[in-house]
Amino acid sequence: MAKEAAQQKITISTVGLGQDVNRALSRKGGELCQVAGRIFSAIPRGSSRSCCGDVMEHTGSTAIEKPLTPQVVKQAGNTEGVGMETAPALKGYVRFIAKPSADTLLTMDDKDPLFVRWQYGLGRSAVFSSDAKARWAGDWVAWSGFDRFWTNVARDLLPHSQPVEAGLRYDNDSGALVADYRLSRHVKEPAKAPAIFAVGPDGFRKPMSLKRIAPGTYRATVPVGSRRGLFRVRPLEESRAFPEIGLYLPEQELEEYGSDAALLRQVSAYTGGRFQPSGAQVFDSGGKAIPSRMSLWPGLLGLAVLLNLLELLNRKWKGVLELLSRRAV
Fold first, then answer.
1. pLDDT, mean of residues 139-146
2. What is the pLDDT of residues 4-43, one digit of tens each?
3. 241: closest CA among 161, 184, 197?
4. Using CA atoms, how far apart are residues 86 and 144, in angstroms rounded to an integer?
5. pLDDT at 31
6. Rounded to the nearest 5°, which phi and psi values hold at 285?
7. Any bridge partners for residue 247, and if so which?
8. N or C: which end of the chain has fewer CB within 10 A?
9. Tens digits of per-residue pLDDT, 184-214?
10. Which residues contact 287 (CB under 8 A, 6 or more apart)?
């Protein structure tokens, strides 16, 4: 069919996905747009307009190949101790759009994400849009922070135990939120405690005073008064030693429990009922019940006779039809 199409000067454009594209077969149609490595890399073709040309016109190439230095957008454990400010330029990367809920840590050309991390439940994934080989990262391979960077990335993605015991509670006496942090022996204490903020309902946002009360133990407090709702406490910059924690303070009416005995007694007296009756009194009519009797046997007897006639008619129906047909003849 491809040969017949070529004889009729009909161009068949094909799109190949992956590295094992059958180029020989695709060339019989006249053109191949291969989606692998460099996205939409078209084989030289004639002057006629084609699908590859349309794709390139509307989307452009997603592979950018020019020396660019990564910029740190957000500090995190992946870049801790790496020295990203000394990182050499990368020779290329692939453009993409990060999820709205993802954390963009590194960018290229001040706009395109380079390294993005996404947290979903207890799972975590990461995207690095360049490579780790000689093609685009040739200078990175010889960089002193190359091994440390990828070690941090792998460690961040692997399951690990909670490095910090953190909790948030409400102090009724002072009307303040109290955040407690206890660092494990695997977590190094920061030289300077980060800025901690509390965010709550009705636009509540205040800094918390974080103090070191013992080796590896920190405490932060902030007064919230009579506010109720969901409160979150988190550092201004991501910190492994001070994770985000939260607490929900229910409304005062939800904390009150019990029964208004006086009101229930009034309701039962007004309606002629009993207050706190015993088990036997629950089913005691108190002489207010009216005895009645209903005979069911006449109706059941008539139903039985009717069903018997229907069953007899069902068995004799064929014979009745034959008898009627004979009389008609």
1. 87
2. 887 888 777 777 666 666 777 666 555 555 444 333 333 4
3. 184
4. 9
5. 53
6. -75, -15
7. 231
8. C
9. 777 778 888 888 999 998 889 999 888 888 8
10. none
Residues in the chain: 329
Buried b (16+ CB within 10 A) or exposed e, 29-45: bbbbbbeeeebbbbeeb
pTM above 0.85, yes or no: no
Q: Where are the beta strands (DSSP E) in the chain?
A: 12-17, 30-36, 38-42, 63-64, 71-72, 93-94, 103-108, 112-120, 123-128, 164-171, 176-183, 196-199, 205-214, 217-223, 229-235, 245-249
User: DSSP 3-state helix, strand, coil percentages of the chain (rounded to 5)?
Assistant: 30, 30, 40
Residue 27 CA to chain centroid, in angstroms?
44
3-state SS assignment for residue 306: helix
SS3 189: coil
Burial of 49 (0-12, 13-18, 19+ CB in 10 A): exposed
Q: Locate 293 and state its tokens.
A: 């009797």
Residue 303 has pLDDT above 90, yes or no: yes
